[in-house]
Amino acid sequence: MDLDRFDRQLLNLVQEDAGQTAERLAEQVALSPSAIQRRLRRLHEQGVIEREVAVVDPKAVGRPTLFIVALQVERERPDLMSQLRRWLSAQEHVQQAFYVTGEADFILVVTAPDAESYDALMGRLMSENANVKRFTTNVAMSVVKRGLSIPITMGDGA
């Protein structure tokens, strides 16, 4: 899809705060509110904007602990990998899961209220997925940066 300067500006702005009104966005992009709404609708329809979410403070909702998990599998058979992907996708504690290169096969970002909840999740992972060989866990001591924004240049390298 071809994104013009206005689309790129809009994408940067809504990644920062998707709750802005069309009027507020129009002030920043120099388009009319109706043009903003049309562009946003098109960006949604074409899959450029996948979804809009609220960023919640984990501590405020009783999930203060963040675990970064490196997961290794025994075999990379397509059926076994597909089963594991489905299992990971269904777990509410798993915020993000990446299939990666290197020593680990998957990197997971897991949130939990405490170590006991995390331990129970990983116990289920091992018992319900015989193809999982091992995992290692890092506990996040603090969050330095958290986000999903994709930097979008204006097309002139800026």
Automatic annotation (TrEMBL):
<dbReference type="GO" id="GO:0005829">
    <property type="term" value="C:cytosol"/>
</dbReference>
<feature type="domain" description="HTH asnC-type">
    <location>
        <begin position="3"/>
        <end position="64"/>
    </location>
</feature>
<dbReference type="Pfam" id="PF13412">
    <property type="entry name" value="HTH_24"/>
</dbReference>
<dbReference type="InterPro" id="IPR036388">
    <property type="entry name" value="WH-like_DNA-bd_sf"/>
</dbReference>
<keyword id="KW-0238">DNA-binding</keyword>
<dbReference type="InterPro" id="IPR019887">
    <property type="entry name" value="Tscrpt_reg_AsnC/Lrp_C"/>
</dbReference>
<dbReference type="GO" id="GO:0043565">
    <property type="term" value="F:sequence-specific DNA binding"/>
</dbReference>
<dbReference type="InterPro" id="IPR000485">
    <property type="entry name" value="AsnC-type_HTH_dom"/>
</dbReference>
<keyword id="KW-0805">Transcription regulation</keyword>
<dbReference type="GO" id="GO:0043200">
    <property type="term" value="P:response to amino acid"/>
</dbReference>
<dbReference type="InterPro" id="IPR019888">
    <property type="entry name" value="Tscrpt_reg_AsnC-like"/>
</dbReference>
<dbReference type="GO" id="GO:0006355">
    <property type="term" value="P:regulation of DNA-templated transcription"/>
</dbReference>
<protein>
    <submittedName>
        <fullName>Lrp/AsnC family transcriptional regulator</fullName>
    </submittedName>
</protein>
<dbReference type="InterPro" id="IPR011008">
    <property type="entry name" value="Dimeric_a/b-barrel"/>
</dbReference>
<dbReference type="InterPro" id="IPR036390">
    <property type="entry name" value="WH_DNA-bd_sf"/>
</dbReference>
<keyword id="KW-0804">Transcription</keyword>
<dbReference type="InterPro" id="IPR011991">
    <property type="entry name" value="ArsR-like_HTH"/>
</dbReference>
<dbReference type="Pfam" id="PF01037">
    <property type="entry name" value="AsnC_trans_reg"/>
</dbReference>
